[in-house]
Design brief:
- It is a single chain.
- The protein is α/β, with parallel strands linked by helices.
- It has one domain: HAD superfamily/HAD-like (Rossmann fold, 3-Layer(aba) Sandwich), CATH 3.40.50.1000.
- It contains six helices and five strands.
- The strands form two sheets. The chain has a three-stranded parallel beta sheet with strand order 3-4-5, with helices on both faces. Strands 1-2 form a two-stranded parallel sheet.
- It starts with 12 loop residues before the first helix and ends with a helix.
Length: 143
Amino acid sequence: MPTNASDAILPGVTRFLERLARTDNLVALYTGDSPRIVCSIMEASGLGRYFAFFVAGTEAHNRAGLVRKVLDKARQRTGKRFEGRDIVIIGDSVRDVAVGKEFNALTIAVTTGLHSWEELAKYQPDYLLESMEDTNSILKAIG
């Protein structure tokens, strides 16, 4: 991680999260990283304030399990059962798109990770973006 954690935040992410925070959407994070790493990154970057909660890799054996944990926690917090297009998964991995499809979620793939546009496109995300900088389009897609 860079010395200044804010240098590691991808362009558009903070602006997107700031705008998303002004909506009625419950925003959660799932990641394969350990809770210690997630807490460290969230604290150092200041992004933690935008998430209601997170689910880390130690809480499930696979991505689908992580998403199930997020949905369980969301239901506990809100009393609402989230399913289908109530769920939005934004990620930069083909695994993010695949798990989103498994839950019939709205999937937004971003080419900021290891997977190219072509690789992500093969998994047919609902939206495929080069970055998180087009905040208006992303928020419109989420609805």
